[in-house]
Amino acid sequence: MENKALINTSGIINNTKTDPNKILPMRYMWARQHYISGVANNWTPEEVSMQKDVEQWKEPKFLTDDERRMIYWNLGFFATAESLTANNLVLAVYRHVTNPECRQFLLRQAYEEAVHTDTFIYCCDTLGLDPEYIYNMYLTIPSINDKDRFVISLTESIFDPNFEVKDLVTLRKFVHDLIGYYVIMEGIFFYAGFAMMLALKRQNKMVGIGEQFEYIMRDESIHLAFGCDLINQIKAENPALWTQEFQDELVDLIKKAVALESRYALDACPRGLLGISTQQFVNYVEYVADRRLQRIDLPKVYNKENPFPWMSQSTDLSKEKNFFESRVTEYRTGGSLEW
Ligand code: MN
Ligand code: FE
């Protein structure tokens, strides 16, 4: 009975009362702010030199077999995860999020996902990797396939062209999709890979790819923030959505995601990496998952310390430059060119 309750149609999704083409005046300034942050982080992969990476990759003894395996696993996972995310955004999320400033952000995000897809094309081209191998890893490597299938399973119903968000049952399905892609895919499943690739970069190995992962991570941290703000706004506008039962279900999904990500970390670097144990990568994933849970007002599960404090420097979008780590802290192009 309660589940047949209709959703709020004067808010952020499926709004029947406002014109989706009229962006001013704005109502959700956080959406606008995420758009502006995205533009401030504009970049393209070709701006990052792969010269040194090519030399290191071709030198048979420079990288260990385990390091190569880790790089392959992460390229294989990310190469297809980016387009899964982009497809979901355009084919499933955009239709229901009618608010114009949110749609402006979604269009920007879709472009950024195209840039990320381009990054893996660029890596394959410069390093001479076999695209058949890389782009099939999401089918052939079980620990990658399980992550992708898990996210897809959360979102299947909303890909149905007849799917409409009209009551609490369908709204919960829609929120499952947002949790699946924004919180789990972009917020948890990307993070073991980010930590591994940036750990390698800290040792001056494959710094070009490392820098590209750093740029991607910054974009993803904005996508994640937008997704959480969107979820929190939907909750605020539809308080009946957020029952204890639904919250328990979401916490359970995030626990399953952490288990899949831990298995992936173990598979990508079974013997640890550069003095970092596989368990530390798992702890990092758990630490990150707690932060995601708290961001959408769900209770922490793991209570782990951050084993890699250096990771937050790379995500931090502040203007301060860390001269010892990287040159990528704030980046502007185009608009800042002087004529
Ligand atoms: Mn992306
Ligand atoms: Fe993203």
Overall description:
This protein has 339 residues and is mainly α. It has a single domain (29-40, 49-317), classed as Ribonucleotide Reductase, subunit A (Orthogonal Bundle). Helix content is 65%, strand content 0%. Helix 1 (29-40) packs antiparallel against helix 9 (207-237) and helix 4 packs antiparallel against helix 9 (207-237). It starts with 28 loop residues before the first helix and ends in a 24-residue tail after the last helix. The model is unreliable at 317-339 (pLDDT under 50). Bound molecules: manganese (II) ion and fe (iii) ion.
What keyword list fits this structure?
single chain, 339 residues, globular, disordered C terminus, binds manganese (II) ion, binds fe (iii) ion
The CATH top-level class label: Mainly Alpha
Associated small molecules? manganese (II) ion, fe (iii) ion
How large a portion of the residues is in β-strands, by DSSP E? under 5%
SSE arrangement, N to C: HHHHHHHHHHHH
Compute the gyration radius: what is it? Answer: 20 Å
